[in-house]
Amino acid sequence: MEKSTLMSEGLTLMVTGMGFVFVFLTVLVLVTTLMSWIITRYEKSVGALPAEGIPAPTAVLGRNQSGQSKQQSQSSQDSTLLTVLSSAVHKYRKNK
User: Fold this and answer.
1) Could you give the CA distance from residue 71 to residue 62 in angstroms, rounded to a whole number?
2) Cβ neighbours of residue 73 under 8 Å, at least 6 residues apart?
3) Are the CB atoms for 64 and 73 separated by under 8 Å?
4) In this structure, are residues 68 and 62 in contact, taking their beta carbons and an 8 Å threshold?
5) Residue ranges of the domains in the chain?
6) The whole model's pTM is what?
7) What pLDDT does residue 46 have?
8) What digits encode the pLDDT tens for the residues 69-96?
9) Band of the pLDDT at 9, cuts 50, 70, 90?
10) Tens digits of residue pLDDT in 38-58
11) Handedness of CA 10, 13, 16, 17 (dihedral sign)
């Protein structure tokens, strides 16, 4: 097989692949735009805030509100972390 034939086949494959990707992405954008247009046409409340407002987040990050209990909790977490790390280092050095 000649080099020029191999090169032309490679370029043809590249252009075909790039064309396919371009057509796919264009169709994807058009379909997404069409779906958005249909939804906003038939659903009048899209994008409108509810009259009662936006509800507050329900996740609770921490129950300890006082500084002292929060500090004690942090201290116990630190000691637990130190214990876990110490045992991991000990096991690593034992196996080495």
Assistant:
1) 12
2) 64
3) yes
4) no
5) 72-96
6) 0.45
7) 67
8) 666 677 777 888 888 888 888 888 888 6
9) very high
10) 988 887 766 666 677 666 665
11) negative
For residue 3, the one-letter residue type is: K
Nearby residues of 64 by Cβ (< 8 Å), 6 or more positions away: 70, 73
The two tokens of residue 2 are 């000649």
Residue carrying structure tokens 């009048």: 44
State the Cα torsion 16-17-20-24 to the nearest 10°. Answer: -170
What number of residues does the chain have? 96
Residue showing tokens 């936006």: 54
Rounded to an integer, what distance in angstroms lies between the CA atom of residue 46 and that of residue 88?
53
